[in-house]
Amino acid sequence: MKQCFFAVDLGATSGRTILGTFTPEGLEMEDVNRFPNRLIETGGHFYWDIYELYRNIIEGLKIVAQRGDVEITSIGIDTWGVDFVCVGKDGDFIRQPYSYRDPHTVGASDIFFRKVPRKQVYEWTGIQVMNFNSLFQLDTLRRNDDSALAAADKLLFIPDALSYMLTGEMVTEYTIASTAQLINAKTRKFEDALLYEIGLTRSNFGRFVYPGDKVGVLTKEVQTMTGLGAIPVIAVAGHDTASAVASVPAVNRNFAYLSSGTWSLMGVETDAPVITEETEALNFTNEGGVEGTIRLLKNICGMWLLERCRTAWGETSYPELISEANASEPFRSLINPDDALFANPADMEQAIKNYCSDHRQPVPQTRGQVVRCIFESLALRYRQVLDNLRTLSPCQVETLHVIGGGSRNDLLNQWTANAIGIPVVAGPSEATAIGNVMIQALTAGTAKDISSMRRLINGSIPLKTFYPEDTEMWDAAYLHFKQMTMITNN
């Protein structure tokens, strides 16, 4: 019977369960089930449906159990960061978790900094300031006398909440907790002074674990529902970007990565946090990685821009939109992808048009012009962030590895290479799930370390390299981009 690792990979718009198997040829990945992850909007708030996510995980486990030709070695779960579930003293969830896109945290960071200076928070955590960080979510809930928080005995981040539903064991995994802006980047534990300011203690969280630690085994209830045995659930790198970065198929340390999906996350891997006046001014973040590494990175609004436009366009196929963009006039209109205007507008296409109008640029009139505006603006924003990373990284940046779903976008990858002036290596597209599987494999002893894991991925996953073209034209466009968008680094 084939031995497999079961990876649960949940993004902000969709989820999937995947089987990973090691063969003499390398790593094989097989989809089990895929499903949407839809926000619930009610009462002026946006929620995640944690129970529907759990139901789909159970469905995936049932499918594997019924096959009879594979045996699951372990299970690992990764998700987006910062969001959490409130758990009562009886162990039940008190309500559905708020989404980080909920508007209740607008301006929340500035309010918190009246209590603790921004500089001090950054010195402790090394985390970039974003209104939806868990620290500011929790402070907002407390100020609003939120009933769920008031009744909560424990707080579980999303992957930990799902692991709890499977095992009955409450843990706090390091990489997902590091996104909360509650972890001291140097000690890699909770910063008690910050917990105090929001009325919490370490006892309000589950047992602290690191990637590769065992959470528990499937409960009797889950075993009965799925037909499986007491399979262990492993705390992989619970933050999806941490899992994705673990799978970067790099041959040395001289690389930057771009995890390209709903968000674009660009960064480098370091052995220790980089917390300086410069990283604070540039609003770079130091999130937890695998094997003791730190992910020094910057969040950039990614395919969220196009995904929201596609919703209004009737889910037009990506190849069709890319073809229309490629046929449109270059550098006609540019936007700052990270402008607050694009956080969660009711009409993304109109928001882009409004931005162009407000900045005295030609307003996009066709879908192709809108898509070209998005892609060119993202490529130029990537250059801006990479230029900053080059000054901060302890290693030279010789290659940019694009991983995640965006690695399949050949047009954007080529434009990114043109903008940044160094080769772009695209793949794997299923980076997060692969990293999830590889952490499980390390725990099981199937893989030895991250370096050998990356070499294995490099040799077994198809990769595509894009080399810079038309660099003079893109250099000129970059100057225009900075002038037109007036981007700040925050």
Automatic annotation (TrEMBL):
PANTHER family the record matches: GLUCONOKINASE, SUGAR KINASE
Protein name, UniProt field: Rhamnulokinase
Domain of life: Bacteria
EC number(s) from the headed UniProt entry: 2.7.1.5
InterPro entries: ATPase_NBD, Carb_kinase_FGGY, FGGY_C, FGGY_Carb_Kinase, FGGY_N, Rhamnulokinase
Keyword annotations of the record: ATP-binding, Disulfide bond, Kinase, Nucleotide-binding, Rhamnose metabolism, Transferase
Gene3D superfamilies documented for this protein: 3.30.420.40
Pfam families: FGGY_C (PF02782), FGGY_N (PF00370)
Domain Carbohydrate kinase FGGY N-terminal, residue spans: 6-245
Entry GO MF terms: ATP binding; rhamnulokinase activity
Segments forming domain Carbohydrate kinase FGGY C-terminal: 256-443
Biological process (GO), any one: rhamnose catabolic process
Family: Belongs to the FGGY kinase family.
NCBIfam families: rhamnulo_kin
Broad class of enzyme this protein falls into: transferase
